[in-house]
Amino acid sequence: MRNREVTMPRAALALVLGTALAVTGAALPAQAANPGVNVTSEAATPAPAKLTNLSHLDFLLDDVPLLPGVAGHTTYRAAEEPTARAPWVYADRQSDGSFHRVGGGPITDAARGWYAQGAYDADDISRAAVVYLRDWKQNGTASSRTSAYELLRSLTYLQTSEGPNSGNVVLWQQHDGTLNPSAIPKELPDPSDSAESFWLARTVWALGEGYAGFRSADPAFASFLADRMHLALGALQRQSLGQYPQTQVADGVTVPGWLIVGSAGATAEAVLGLSAFVGAQPGDTTARTALARYADGVSRLQSGGIGQWPFGALLPEANSPTFWHAWAGMQPAALTAAAGVLGDTRLQTAASTDLAQFTAQLLTTGGPDNGWTPTPADRTQIAYGVDSRLEGLVAASDATHATGLAALAGAQAAWYFGANRAGTPAYDPATGVCVDGIAADGTVNRNCGAESVIHTELSMLALDAHPAIARAATSLTRTAVTAGLTVVEAESGTTTGPVTTVTPPSAWTGSANWSGGAYLQAADGSTVTIALPAGHPAARILPIADLGPGGSGTTSWTAAVGRFALPLGHSDNVRAGEQGIAPSPVFLLPQTLPVPVPAQATALTATVHGTARLDAVIVQPVVSHLGLTGSSSLDVYVNATKLPVPQRIDASAPVTATAYDFAGRLVGRSQTVGAHGFVVVPPGGFTTVSPR
After folding, report:
1. Angle at CA 628, nearest 5°, toward 394 and 453?
2. Please, what's the largest Cα pairwise distance for the chain?
3. CA atoms within 13 A on the CB side of 310
4. Per-residue confidence at 125, pLDDT binned at 50, 70, 90?
5. Is 233 in a helix, a strand, or coil?
6. Considering the entire predicted model, what is its pTM?
7. High-pLDDT (> 70) share of the chain, %
8. How far are the Cα atoms of 352, 462, 656, 660, 665 from residue 408, in angstroms, in the given order?
9. Does the pLDDT of residue 4 top 50, yes or no?
10. How far, in Å, CA of 451 to CA of 171, rounded?
11. What integer pLDDT is reported at residue 650 of this predicted model?
12. What are phi and psi of 616, to 5 degrees?
């Protein structure tokens, strides 16, 4: 799923960087035979205090009756052990700092304690099981083995075991054990076990890791889990998996037609479970085939590249090439796991590209926002999104020995310890309490529900297993600089000719957002002049126009540099291609202009040749910058071009600079750089600067 290639001329880069290129030259250090010190080397770095604390997740767990006589619903040793365990979905923080467990939706029957949705759901039961399985494996915690066992029994009770929906999973359950297949508000599928779902994908995740965990410790239980895995695979074969290798089209882009609910996010979580299962049972050809096909489908949603939106990201939804979200973002971790089991280096390349290029750019722009659509729109951040990035970075660093990914992992994990928009810790290792999210303005949701604590503890387990990354993360407690993507609205500009500002009833098109909730309808010959942000660095320009059937022709762009109008290139006003499964004919894909703007540019002028619906402009620095501080410090400089770029640093003392390529691999050796000196940022890669 690739956008058209845009190559920046070397002369254009020299123009925007001015004399800096002559100061440092354009040559990168040669690749050293010795890759240098691996920053993930655990022997060299003392471990911080243990970060994993399951106390709050334990608090959420409750006994749940396994009601007999419910058609299609039973579990392992149900008659002998008539109760299991499940986590309450939400925990509301009280004024005294304690928490109250609550279910989903309003109470509908106070006498029975029923909620419109339920007290427990399969999404959280499955992922909680993964937490306890990993803690048992990593730390040998006996109580975590018991909790994992009970959660897996609870989860498999929700899985329908017979009839036309066999293998699918009921989502909601009340506190007294009653299943609620049709929750209020209505969720699809309805009933919740009538088709495949996110919760079926997460069930596969838990079953796979559960089988691998209990295979030697409890063979009888593991055999039951294997049977339930095959029951789930049978359901998937009747549905998405049975569509392999059919493809579909979304806004002219060919996409896989065999992803679970059309989502790479859901499918990736199933891939995590299948990787664990096949790793423990390599001769299971049914599971191996499913793993290979689903992993291939996830990898096919990679899009963009260096300087091209979405910058190498693995997109989450097959029906939208213009939408990325941080939640359910396990694709890099899943492809890394699958690559190891299947021996498929192509999958690892896709994961590493996402992590070294897109995730690096994401961090400089403020971190894992809930939605880029395609501009950063929903800037709320939650543990699910943070953990998805962190687990991918850690797994790929382990698999490829790309030490740059470990450095980014430390920067991402610092979110939990204060390097976030609120400037406050999002997790307390002393209590195991986290937060439910941080809004764009820094407002903190102090509740701590199941999904939040589950993904927080998955992150802490990963950090405890990697003390060097944990040490870096816990020492970086404040965000000093985020100089990444910025957005300028087209409607903020001055216009000539026939141009109208249009405000649609909703900013959401079904697969993207009109940035700022409005756009300009511009006719042939009209112009729009947009002021660039004051103090911007040299930057790439990515106009956003609706490429759907309402436009025609192209738009030419220039930048005002003093008295000179610097030609930047053209963008399309329409893009040929079938709408297909895309929810809307509106197609808001950012396009990268071939020539960047220098820091001296003050404005952009668009001249329309045809008709255009102009939405916004993304300004991507040639070199983006993330700066984190605390008891230590870390600066990350990310290159948006295919040429090496010099970058001046502003430090009070000599520092250590380490360069990494477009896959996070070390380039040359770490170097000492004097205060106010220059570093070179590799093509499509990044350079870190830290104290000596």
Report:
1. 50
2. 84
3. 26
4. very high
5. helix
6. 0.94
7. 93
8. 12, 14, 16, 11, 12
9. no
10. 14
11. 86
12. -165, 175
